[in-house]
Specification:
The chain is of the alpha/beta class. The chain has 25 helices and 14 strands. Helix 13 runs antiparallel to helix 16 and helix 22 packs parallel to helix 23. It is globular and about 80 Å long. The two termini are 27 Å apart.
Length: 628
């Protein structure tokens, strides 16, 4: 499998101090920001006529809804549709413009998406400036961080596909010509992209932006700081006052979780793949006064401009989302230390794009890419720190110089990856162990030391481990078996888990949960109790991008379909060997078969509605937990 292209080291690559440049230190806008499009440039550049109009009729689909041209038979047939559209401010002129659907994943229930309506309005303004007519609509949004550890978390992964289906329904139902979609909280990001890929649409996805770090006693905080503080309090390491201080200072305003958790991982991947505009992944959502950031507002205008570039040039989603683009995304995920959830979402995205990508392809790429990013949850920095250093384009420029990126992949700008990053700033590296990013010559960890796929008699279809540079040659210990997340968390907080244990949480897979909940609460409790280096946790559920420690998720087949993890008993010896890409239980094939013959699915509460539908159709996590 050809995964990489040859490259040479770029001349003039700066290897010096990791401190921000003087431009940043004195508060000036870096030169690469000054180059971005504004509303005025969109108005001047979008169409061949220079006034936001286009000499090409871009109404490839909306004619069926609105009519083609006054006086024709089709125009007369669509009279009633236009009558209704006039009631929502469509004018005579609007009927001659391409129709753009704007998926606004807004809710004021979570900081990740609380600013989305403002972004949706800015996207509409960008569409108008580019010569189109937009309509906006909402989707469901479930906050992982808020529902973590509750039954509500069952709806999190479900919401990814529900968001995708909702966007598809609105875009296809109204026969829009192009689509702009917004994503913030974890599942809304792949959910916002999947329908674009599914229908090979003209579309651009925009990330709502990262939250600024919280601050307490000179330390940067994220929401994961709150989760780990719970474990620290249970272990008696902090008191209630400190716990309350962490709670009140972790999340200062709107935006998605600040570390290299799932949201920032996916936004980085999607920008790398060329499906969102350059620099947008690292831009913070708001400023310290919680006002929409200037950069993020400009991202909206640039996204609208990019959409019209794609429509005018006939660049559809699958022209961009090629096999090579997916490989680029995985490279960046590995280099930056991204979330294990990226495995699940990339497989689902590839399914939508009809690209041949399997779970084992991640190991092939992992073996070539060292860990360079020192980001939370395992490191020290947050996405806002990468923004100051040139964002994803600077990372891509460096990786391209090392021959790890396919530079000829097309993007929504109408340019290739290599063309987009040509003028990006050169990354600067420190001479010591400091710095947001480390050079290839001195990485945080060598290739094959971050996210890996394991196989063995405990996971015949695969499982996912996140090492993040930890040297775990082998972990062998007794299984501590729990049939739900709640049972495991109670045991951890009660001090019943001891060094060398292997905590097993099962019946939490896509079907068994249903919904494949994230195990951030128990994993954070293990870390907070000081057991992160001595206790392993394995599950057929998922882990938050904020999880770290010795964590193995996505164990397939899951317990609910008779997978080996459902056959484990208390005290069985479980062995993890990341170097050998192996996860196993010390039981003979005969013993496993004997247990399987006696196995039956434990009784769970009766499913209704959304969860019942989901459990009936969802695939294995090894195929992305897709629903069609």
């Amino acid at each position: 499998m050809a995964c990489f292209v040859a490259g040479t080291t770029a001349p003039g690559l700066l290897i010096g101090s990791h401190a921000p440049s003087r431009e940043l230190a004195v508060g000036k806008r870096p030169h690469w920001r000054q180059q971005r499009a504004s509303m005025a440039s969109i108005r001047m550049d979008s169409g061949a006529d220079g006034d936001g109009s286009s000499t090409t009729d871009l109404r490839t689909r909306s004619k069926e809804l609105i009519g083609d041209k006054e006086g024709t038979e089709l125009w007369r047939k669509r009279t009633a549709a236009r009558a209704m559209l006039r009631a929502v401010d469509f004018t005579d002129e609007d009927f001659d413009k391409p129709l753009v659907s704007v998926a606004c994943t807004f809710t004021n229930a979570t900081p990740c998406n609380a600013h989305m309506y403002e972004l949706g309005v800015a996207l509409e303004e960008g569409v108008v400036a580019a010569g189109g007519k937009a309509f906006m609509y909402g989707t469901p949004v479930i906050s992982d961080g808020e529902t973590m550890g509750t039954s509500g978390m069952r709806y999190s992964l479900v919401s990814r596909d529900l968001i995708a289906d909702s966007i598809e329904t609105m875009h296809e139902g109204y026969l829009a010509d192009g689509m702009l979609t917004l994503g913030g909280c974890d599942k809304s990001i792949p959910g916002a992209l999947m329908p674009i890929l599914r229908h090979n649409a003209f579309g651009v996805m925009l990330y709502g932006g990262s939250i600024l770090p919280g601050q307490l006693d000179g330390e940067d905080l994220t929401v994961v700081s709150s989760f780990e503080a719970i474990g620290a309090r249970a272990a008696g390491k902090i008191d209630d006052a400190r716990l309350a201080d962490v709670e009140k200072n972790s999340c200062p305003g709107s935006g998605s979780c600040g570390g290299m958790f799932t949201a920032n991982t996916m936004s980085s991947i999607i920008e790398t793949m060329g499906l969102s505009v350059p620099y947008s992944a690292a831009h913070t959502a708001v400023d310290r006064s919680n006002k929409l950031s200037e950069d993020k507002r400009e991202d909206c205008y640039r996204s609208a401009k990019a959409l019209f570039t794609c429509m005018q040039r006939g660049i559809r989603a699958r022209d961009i989302a090629t096999r090579e683009a997916f490989e680029n995304g995985i490279v960046v995920m590995m280099a930056l230390g991204g979330s294990t959830n990226a495995v699940l979402h990339l497989l689902a995205m590839a399914h939508e794009a009809e690209v041949d990508l399997t779970i084992d392809d991640f190991n092939v790429i992992a073996d070539r890419v060292p860990l360079l990013g020192d980001f939370k949850p395992f490191g020290r920095y947050v996405m806002a720190d990468l923004e100051k250093r040139g964002g994803i384009p600077a990372v891509l420029k460096y990786l391209l110089s090392k021959g790890l990126i396919h530079g000829d992949c097309m993007t929504v700008t109408g340019k290739t990856v290599a063309e987009n990053v040509k003028d990006a700033p050169d990354l600067e590296f420190g001479d010591d162990a400091e710095g947001v990013l480390r050079p290839f010559e001195n990485p945080l960890a060598p290739a094959g030391s971050h996210v890996l796929i394991l196989h063995g008699n405990l996971a015949p279809e695969g499982a996912v481990i996140k090492l993040s540079g930890k040297e775990v040659e082998k972990h062998r210990g007794p299984a501590r078996v729990f049939d739900s997340e709640e049972q495991a968390l109670d045991a951890i907080l009660a001090g019943k888990i001891v060094p060398n244990d292997v905590v097993v949480i099962r019946y939490e897979g896509p079907r068994g949960g249903p919904g494949m909940r994230e195990m951030l609460s128990p994993s954070a409790a293990i870390m907070g109790a000081g057991l992160g280096k001595s206790v392993a946790l394995i599950t057929d559920g998922r882990f938050s991008g904020g999880s770290h420690g010795i964590m193995v998720g996505h164990v397939c087949p899951e317990a609910a379909v008779g997978g080996p993890i459902g056959l484990l008993k208390e005290g069985d010896i479980v062995v993890l060997e990341p170097g050998a890409r192996k996860i196993s239980v010390e039981l003979s094939d005969e013993e496993l078969e004997a247990r399987r013959a006696k196995w039956s699915m434990p009784e769970k509460e009766k499913l209704r509605g959304t969860l019942k539908k989901y459990a009936a159709v969802v695939s294995s996590a090894s195929f992305g937990a897709v629903t069609h």
